[in-house]
């Protein structure tokens, strides 16, 4: 729910920013040519001629705003840091706009207007951000849009963190309770209660609505840290550490400061960034449409062959677990004889599987059976490239057996992925597959997606492990 709220907020911010930039141009034009405050010597460009370059440059401004972290969550962000980033973003945006006008030889574009526009843009964006910040603070103080967090471990840092939460109600954190092996149940700090021992962590993550876990273990208990992190990652819950050893950790990009407290993000996920996420989604939609057009003759042929060679439906849908551990129906061309639901949910496909049809063996070997998943991509259930989704039965099984298995659900699942192009497909090592999935999640880039797509074309369509 919190993630969905943040997505909605970011989309609104992008719209508001675009409106602010356009409104700034209109105000600047009025001040320069219609207000009478500045002397107008001769004829000038129309409002439309001034608007067009700014419309073109708005996406660039949005990217610059994102680069300066103006779309990251407001909970911890210092207002003065944000305002400074607004000034820097607009300065860089103005520089790019002026450069574009120079290259287009737009010599009649008023320099006075550009100066007024930049000031108006900073002012309007600042007013917009302060207004949104105040609205969010008021909502959080009233108990809306809260993040429910669990604290593991009790130390001086725990007390300091709870005090920070109490001082900053606008952060919107609701502390469900504290888990600690050394304090008695019911022990309270600022009305926050010790509700269990460390071994109760898995129960609370599985049965309570926990959005994040903060680890504040005493330095004497650091031997428990690996176990705690393992439980959190098995459940797929985001985990943050508030350590007193942060000065010795070199990974500066992953450390944030919150009211004087260092917080280390356990895992860096590039696709958490709204611009990267939006860009990848746009590529998915365009790519899926293009692929459907290109493969439509093959899909039509497959449709006819399945219909004429095997009784039953042409398409096969199967429940899979995707982004944020949510289930969805994944589509395939049916390659097996019709099965009962219980058999289909728990049986793994093996070499020489007797359930396959003759034509099914061919389309599985060539991956043609996967083509209907392009519709899953258009629906938003999947991406063209990402970790392969699994059935709920096996997700529950593997989360207990494979460390960090649940981390794969922090990004959209894909039709193909880094594990598949490296040969970890079908009845192969799940552990190796997860290692590849984690590498993809932590090292995502457009270049890596292009590389996987290239390998899929030349390695992935026909694979010896595709049963």
UniProtKB/TrEMBL annotation:
It comes from the Bacteria. It holds the Pfam family CoA_binding_3. Keywords: Membrane, Transferase, Transmembrane, Transmembrane helix. GO terms for molecular function: phosphotransferase activity, for other substituted phosphate groups. Its main location: membrane. Belongs to the bacterial sugar transferase family. This is Undecaprenyl-phosphate glucose phosphotransferase.
């Amino acid at each position: 729910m919190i993630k969905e709220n943040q997505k909605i907020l970011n989309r609104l911010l992008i719209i508001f920013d675009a409106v602010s930039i356009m409104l700034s141009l209109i105000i600047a034009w009025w001040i320069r040519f219609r207000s009478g405050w500045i002397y107008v010597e001769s004829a000038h460009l129309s409002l439309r001629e001034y608007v067009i370059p700014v419309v073109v440059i708005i996406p660039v401004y949005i990217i610059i705003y994102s680069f300066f972290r103006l779309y990251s969550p407001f909970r911890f962000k210092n207002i003065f840091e944000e305002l400074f980033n607004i000034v820097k973003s607009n300065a860089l945006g103005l520089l790019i706009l002026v450069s574009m006008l120079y290259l287009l030889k737009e010599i009649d574009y008023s320099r006075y207007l550009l100066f007024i526009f930049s000031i108006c843009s900073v002012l309007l964006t600042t007013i917009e951000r302060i207004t949104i910040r105040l609205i969010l603070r008021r909502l959080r103080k009233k108990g809306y849009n809260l993040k429910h967090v669990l604290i593991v471990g009790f130390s001086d840092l725990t007390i300091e963190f709870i005090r920070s939460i109490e001082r900053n109600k606008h952060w919107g954190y609701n502390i469900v309770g504290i888990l600690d092996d050394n304090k008695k149940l019911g022990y309270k700090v600022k009305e926050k209660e010790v509700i269990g021992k460390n071994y109760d962590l898995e129960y609370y993550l599985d049965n309570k609505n926990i959005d994040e876990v903060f680890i504040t273990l005493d330095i004497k208990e650091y031997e428990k840290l690996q176990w705690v992190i393992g439980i959190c990652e098995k459940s797929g819950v985001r985990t943050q550490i508030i350590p007193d050893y942060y000065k010795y950790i070199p990974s500066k990009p992953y450390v944030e400061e919150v009211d004087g407290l260092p917080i280390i993000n356990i895992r860096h996920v590039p696709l958490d960034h709204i611009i990267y996420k939006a860009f990848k989604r746009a590529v998915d939609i365009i790519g899926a449409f293009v692929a459907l057009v290109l493969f439509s003759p093959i899909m039509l042929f497959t449709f006819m062959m399945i219909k004429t060679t095997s009784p039953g439906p042409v398409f096969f849908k199967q429940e899979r677990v995707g982004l944020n551990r949510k289930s969805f129906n994944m589509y395939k061309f049916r390659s097996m004889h019709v099965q009962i639901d219980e058999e289909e949910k728990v049986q793994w496909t093996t070499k020489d599987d007797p359930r396959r049809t003759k034509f099914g063996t061919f389309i599985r070997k060539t991956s043609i059976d996967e083509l209907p998943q392009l519709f899953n991509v258009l629906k938003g259930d999947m991406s063209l490239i990402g970790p392969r989704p699994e059935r709920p039965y096996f997700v529950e099984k593997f989360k207990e057996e494979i460390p960090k298995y649940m981390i794969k659900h922090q990004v959209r699942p894909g039709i193909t992925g880094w594990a598949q192009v490296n040969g970890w497909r079908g009845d192969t090592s799940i552990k190796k597959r997860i290692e590849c999935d984690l590498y993809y999640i932590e090292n995502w880039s457009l270049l890596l997606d292009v590389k996987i797509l290239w390998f899929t074309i030349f390695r992935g369509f026909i694979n010896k492990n595709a049963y």
